[in-house]
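Retro notes, item 3 of 5
We never archived the inputs for the nicotinamide-adenine-dinucleotide complex last cycle. Fixing that now. Sequence and ligand:
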Amino acid sequence: MNILVTGGAGYVGSTLVPMLLGEGNRVRVLDSLLHGGGSLLGVWANPGFEFQLGDVRDRDAVRKALLGIDAVVHLAAIVGDPACARQPELAREVNLDASLTLLEDSKRAGVSRFVFASTCSNYGKMSDPESYVDETSELRPVSLYAETKVAIEQAMLESNGAMCKTPLRFATVFGVSPRMRFDLTVNEFTLDLLTKKHLVVFGEQFWRPYIHVRDVARAICLVLASPENAVQGEVFNVGDTTENYQKLQLVDLMRPYAPDAKVEFVRREEDPRDYRVCFTKINHRLGFDVSLTVRNGIEEVAWLVKHGVISDFDAPAYRN
Ligand SMILES: NC(=O)c1ccc[n+]([C@@H]2O[C@H](COP(=O)([O-])OP(=O)(O)OC[C@H]3O[C@@H](n4cnc5c(N)ncnc54)[C@H](O)[C@@H]3O)[C@@H](O)[C@H]2O)c1
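Structure as it came back at the time:
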């Protein structure tokens, strides 16, 4: 398959691209390199790999990138609540306007599959913290970031035509990737405990689901390889129901790696990101299981830090 991955130099993309190449696909990445492109050097020499430097807001660049493409995996975005809040106009242009145009241009270009990176943040705060939300639950986006994701999901589900469209709602991602991110909860907490010996946790009681970056990439590969009638117009949460954690539970799992570190808990009564998610649909319909847990991710990040594989932890390139 000829696959276009937008945002392929990012945290998820740089793990996904080698996986797709390994399955014998040809992969073109369209990325504006907001956080650099070193993450793709490992695949640079692969004959199936092609890089196009460009912005998804540039329609000519997008049309060029779509030439000869069978499937689009749309990852490019201003990612996360803080980044979108800092640059709301840019976030709307990239996450909303450019994504809508990409969807339309992909249809016109005869692309057969369109996979969209959405988020479990779309669920917002749960009214009943004891229950689990699933793909049929009401969406209550509480940030611009989630609002833009909900809008694109809706446009995909309402759009007609032969293109097979699949929005994937990822849990919060963790783990090691060629483009490392240390602004994601599991990675950030592990780093702070090991290097600063000090961690401040806001709202330790709040729940969220987590997934390893390699499992996100595996899920995307699985969706691309699944029969169209199993994934067309279907939203899937991507994660594992047993991998919902309160922040306090995360800290408990990390403590053995830094027993001398000081942890401060700051009580918060309200957090819009308080939800537990059910992931049985992707398991039952597509047979997806995660291969790595939060426990594995903590171990992996701790190893990276302890062995000096990365030492410039504070570099802006590791944070959105
Ligand atoms: N990381 C998570 O926890 C998480 C969770 C749920 C959903 N997602 C979604 O997964 C996708 C990938 O996330 P990530 O963590 O890899 O983020 P990331 O910030 O590491 O990667 C985003 C990539 O998009 C590129 N990009 C941004 N604006 C662009 C533009 N205008 N034109 C072209 N390229 C542009 C960036 O250069 C970067 O390489 C995003 O759509 C994100 O919303 C991520």
